[in-house]
Task: structure prediction
Amino acid sequence: MFSGIVEKMAQVVRIEKEQGNKHFTLRNPFLEDGLSADKLTIDQSISHNGVCLTVVRNEGDLYTVTAMQETLRLTNLDLLKEGDWVNLERAMSMDKLLDGHIVQGHVDQMAECIEVKETDGSWYYRFRYDSSEEMIRRGYFCVDKGSVSINGVSLTVCDPDVKDGKGYVSVCIIPYTYQVTNFQYIQPGTMVNIEFDIIGKYLARMNHLLK
Result:
């Protein structure tokens, strides 16, 4: 479980394909804070652009995670190239403040950035994603002032809309978030990972089942 509060960005240094899987090797940014290498351990769960992945190898200042075929199909991990930056968050501990919202690290789908505007020091992004009546019944939608995870970042929804088989959501990014996440690299046409609010998904499905 995660909170959507990104801790660091990590750069992809190597990508290896093995059958339907991909192994991503990244530089460990937590070592920059003087933390020992055992802070990233084998079997540890880490959110990468909002996707929960398990550390399978830890070598010096590099570590490796593996994404299976289904994960690659649903997320933007399959679009990553060597040199790209991803958002990282380690799993939340029970004594940690929930500064964002409950994020599972189970991405629902990708969304396309369709607009970026700087607004007097902050940034406004608008995204478009596939939508349908069935997806809405399953809770794959946004509500105004609700929460959404985009590339693993917990954000407040504004101007949500659904029309012509597409969903739309806008978010505003403060300068700090812009500087410490890969939102600084997002532009129109960029594909991002989106995870809808788990509480909203449960309520939507319960409402449908109880009708």
